[in-house]
Fold this protein.
Amino acid sequence: MPRQSRGALLSTLQLDANSRAPLYRQLEDAIRRIVIDGELPTGARLPASRQLAEDLGVSRLTVKNAYEQLVTEQFLETRPGAGTFVGRISATELAPAVELSSVPARKSLSLSQRANRISQSRSVLRLGGTKPFRPGVPALDQFPSSIWASTHSKVLRHSGTDNLGYGPPGGLLELKQAIANHVQDHRGVRVDPLQIIITAGAQQAFVLIAFTLLNPGDRVWFEDPGHIAGRDAMHLFGADVKSVQIDNEGFDINQAVASYPDPQLIFLTPSHQHPLGITMSLERRMQIIDYAKSHNCWIVEDDYDSEFRYQGRALPAMQCMDNQGQILYVGSFSKTLFPGLRLGYLIAPPVMVEAFSVAQTLMSQNVSPVLQKTLARFIDDGAYNAHIRKMRSLYSHRLDIMHNSLSKHCNDLFHFTKTDAGMHLVAWLRDRKLSDQPVCESIWDAGIDCLPVSMYCDKASIDQGIMLGFSCAPEHEIENLIMRMDRVVRGLL
Amino acid sequence: MPRQSRGALLSTLQLDANSRAPLYRQLEDAIRRIVIDGELPTGARLPASRQLAEDLGVSRLTVKNAYEQLVTEQFLETRPGAGTFVGRISATELAPAVELSSVPARKSLSLSQRANRISQSRSVLRLGGTKPFRPGVPALDQFPSSIWASTHSKVLRHSGTDNLGYGPPGGLLELKQAIANHVQDHRGVRVDPLQIIITAGAQQAFVLIAFTLLNPGDRVWFEDPGHIAGRDAMHLFGADVKSVQIDNEGFDINQAVASYPDPQLIFLTPSHQHPLGITMSLERRMQIIDYAKSHNCWIVEDDYDSEFRYQGRALPAMQCMDNQGQILYVGSFSKTLFPGLRLGYLIAPPVMVEAFSVAQTLMSQNVSPVLQKTLARFIDDGAYNAHIRKMRSLYSHRLDIMHNSLSKHCNDLFHFTKTDAGMHLVAWLRDRKLSDQPVCESIWDAGIDCLPVSMYCDKASIDQGIMLGFSCAPEHEIENLIMRMDRVVRGLL
């Protein structure tokens, strides 16, 4: 193939006069691609700019601009008096062009063992759902967006450039102080604000804990059924996670001690067991704290939705019984505000704070200071407490309606007890032949977003049940939705 | 000690009438603490509510409220006709009270090996700085806060509840599309939006790459001097990071091949080497791509500040030469907008996208969808490009002033060449007896926030130099700051 005719392939290029990209950029991209793809090898001569301009119906300046840029980039080179040629781009001939989207990563470029371990994680399933009866989703339409937006604007406009930088590792003191006040008022937890690390949601707090405290193979006691994403966080770094059953007082430490002695860490949801909703008895709490003290292990207290209690006052957090600095308390704003905020916090013994802050910095840097400052103001202005109070009353009402609707329509299908806390209740299937997963799948098809209890089980063999979130279901729709669900389940009998 | 007199210690309690906490809550907290601390053992009788109310000078209802709550919590119990007693809280006697802030974590509760490995990381040092001459910090006072705030408000107020949930794993398609357009226009990178993962900044992208692709002990080639936080990200998961020198064409692949064959991953900053500012030659790029192709390894292209080029147009990203799906391209909004935004992106071969999304979900869930949507609108409205254009012109001007000031005042102290890209230039110390770290420390004391080049070195033994960020220094101050710095350095001679 003579050099000139190779270059002639340029004259067949299609340029798009309506594109956002100027013509010289289009031409430049096209030539670069042809060179990279090896269609014009090193040394091939390009058409004279006048000729190519004529062939393409563009101005000569367009072609000259494109050539000059490619010369700057070393894709092309000019030889005085001889013309423009493809540069010495590589000793090796490049492979033929392939559309990137059709390129698989080579087999030997495989995932790490860690990545393979989590690739089938169930916690990623259907993450985005916010439809009625989705457990754990707040009443998003009730969020005071205008107050939040104007607080955010004030922070951006009036606090100068202070909050546009990375901010201090571990978070803004202003937000730590606001959280310290909140957990003292709501949860009886007394902390120095400097014990708090602001995280990108509770999940990041779990990951920081696993990263900072667990070596591969370290034993972790985990509730079964339990918080799937929390369990995945422990797995991320190779922990040996042991599933421990739940009895009517909560986490069954006696089974754990008998079966899997000497854990490094115990992961608990004592206020409102996730997903069963049991509140751990005081005696059980004391027993676990004593064990942790005598066996030198950490306790993670995941206090994910304890702001929502409808009868009596909540038990204070286990953290307030800790006089040895062994409890790591994790809180979240996903339930009290909205999940898409991606803010949570970790309360740790003072000597551990720096290690967690360093780990967070290396994993993702800080949480946005603008966001932190907005939340701090929102709390300090009283908007946070006002919203929690309003939602507590609303959710209590929704819970009543859901419980009454279930009692009225579905008593023969499910047994259930009215929860006194949280954002969902569990309806247990009376018919032993039904499995909760296919039942839920049928309910999903009817536009209702419940979850099967078995999804949260590792080895536990418990009754088949359905988690129904009442917090995100409008009052006037709940009974109709329960009736719709009732019809779906009856259809499966 | 008779029971009654133990209980009498309650009468010495101090309640604070001016506290935000109501008196019954204060009393309740105090009694709970006394019980937890073991000062009143199981079975101890509490004073009658009437008596305690009198001793404390509070109403009887206050005491009754506190007692009732503590009975609910099982800390206390009532025996009809006999009074109120400390409950059976634990078989084991609790340890005496300790102020939490004085409690060290026990020695055996030590950090994981991983956490120890990073505990001395240099990348956490002085993270928050935004003072003049801080390298890599944009002109924060020029950020269009009002436009951003009003875009954010519109997203919150007009897009319903869609963006308040967790959002889709890997990010919002709308933002991916906006980024795909941006990188095509600015960097010549042609991607399908579905190849993009939205991350909480570039650092999270590096962490996802290390987590997903590297097993402990896997070899990584890293630039030396190089991006400290990027190197730390590779270290996080136990990679064997090998430092490779930089020559005047960039990353010295010949040294790498000779010294450390067969890496799993090569980490590069080809557009503008971090921190030296060298643009990698096209020939070197081709050579590295060929090597990666024939040896089946990944290339990370960290394209952190390539939007800022002041002379000529930038070389297109290496990513656009990749026809085998081996390049992972990382971009950031920390330089073009502001670091506290905490948004970046990873462009990956299609088959790898899911693995990265799963890893991100388990590490911290998604990036806030409200934030993503705000940025997508900001880009689509043209505000992003307008800001980049404005900053490019401003930074070019600031670079001129800095370069001229250095030439005018410091030619005998430093040698330097004017950079044609990025946000900082390097001034090399002529005096061989000076070390850049103590020189920088003295400059810091004068309120100027430069960084020493040696901080970025692992094994490299290069000249001693100072990185001077021109982007965050107001035009009218630059010459004075350079003169101040000049005086400080002369004082050290």
